[in-house]
Amino acid sequence: MEIIQENNERRGSFKAIEEGKEAGLMTYTWAGPTKFIIDHTEVNEDFKGKGVGQQMLMKAVAYARTNHLKIMPLCPFAKSVFDKNLDIADVLF
């Protein structure tokens, strides 16, 4: 599965693509130059239960770590993953 990031100065997304199909989408909004808010995560019905959301979130965490950013997880899915995984708390805002 490939996770593709699209980013501009106000918003961005991580898209999960498998075999040419969009498996999932995680969107975020910039909240200043050093943090972004994950506001929505959705997974295509055909890909439920395959860890698509987790893969997109881990790509967001890697992006935050590489660029010294913080993440505010307003999306219920993203918040639940942060709540269960202390090993990614370093990027939590």
Automatic annotation (TrEMBL):
Organism of this sequence: Pedobacter helvus
Keywords of the record: Acyltransferase, Transferase
The keyword Transferase appears for this protein: yes
Pfam families: Acetyltransf_CG
Alphabetized Gene3D superfamilies for the sequence: 3.40.630.30
Coiled-coil stretches: none
Name of the protein: GNAT family N-acetyltransferase
GO molecular function, one term: acyltransferase activity
All residue ranges annotated as the N-acetyltransferase domain in the record: 1-93, 6-93
EC category name: transferase
Keyword Phosphoprotein among UniProt keywords: no
Its EC number(s): 2.3.1.-
InterPro entries referenced in this protein's UniProt entry, alphabetically: Acyl_CoA_acyltransferase, Gcn5-rel_NAT, GNAT_dom, GNAT_YJDJ
